[in-house]
Amino acid sequence: MMVSQSPSARRASVQRRTNETRLDASVDLDGNGRADVSTGLPFFDHMLSALSRHSGIDLHLIASGDLQVDAHHTVEDTGLVIGQAIAEALADKSGIRRFASIALPLDEALIEVALDISGRPYLEYGISFPPDSLALGDPGFDPQLAEEFWRAFATTALVTLHVRMVAGKNTHHVLEASFKAVARCLADAVRIETRGVPSTKGVI
């Protein structure tokens, strides 16, 4: 995985090349929520665009993977590169708010998210779907893959992330609310509001 960081702004780019996927990603934490994404999975692109829009983070992502085998590799590796880019763009995390939480509704769905840019990767994911849930879009996005995306994201972004469904029936609504809720927490948590690193340790 190759990483480059802008010295004058909170931006970073990441490349990942494997036998299963090829990905190029870049983020600007102080952007306007502009998304330019292509994964070969239209529903997943829609979720990533919502993540960008509602976090205010500009996101460029081009991914190609072995979708003829399964979408798992592409989805997981997308989480890895976006998380890595955000971690690199945050640098020493000086001045960030660090913590954020929200309860976000989308029609009948209600999702709670809590986020800590902690330097300690951890995911608690309290959303489940029936094993026979229909894939969304064409090619299809298996709803179960959202958990794999967030686990990969939390691992490389070095964040503690809790995602919990309070209510929900419509799969699309539940997934979209979860992406928007994480987005809003990211918007709050990466915001500069203090001096120094927000930790008694002096580092995160």
Describe it for me?
With 204 residues, the chain is of the alpha+beta class. The protein has one domain (2-189): Imidazole glycerol phosphate dehydratase, domain 1 (Ribosomal Protein S5, domain 2, 2-Layer Sandwich), CATH 3.30.230. It contains four helices and nine strands. The protein has helices at residues 42-55, 72-90, 145-157, 171-189, and strands at residues 2-5, 11-17, 21-28, 35-38, 58-65, 99-106, 109-116, 122-126, 160-167. The strands form two sheets. The chain has a five-stranded mixed beta sheet, covered by helices on one side. α1 packs parallel to α4 and α2 runs parallel beside α3 (145-157). The chain is globular. The mean pLDDT is 94.
Number of domains: 1
* Rg for CA atoms: 16 Å
Shape: globular
* Main beta sheet: 5 strands, mixed
Helix content range of the residues, please? 25-40%
Gap between N and C termini, in Å? 22 Å
Strand order of the largest sheet: 1-2-3-5-4
Question: What is the element string, with H for helices and E for strands?
Answer: EEEEHEHEEEHEH
What's the CATH architecture? 2-Layer Sandwich
Which percent band covers the strand fraction? 25-35%
The CATH superfamily is known as Imidazole glycerol phosphate dehydratase, domain 1
Low-pLDDT stretches are none
Give the CATH topology. Ribosomal Protein S5, domain 2
User: Would you state the CATH class?
Assistant: Alpha Beta
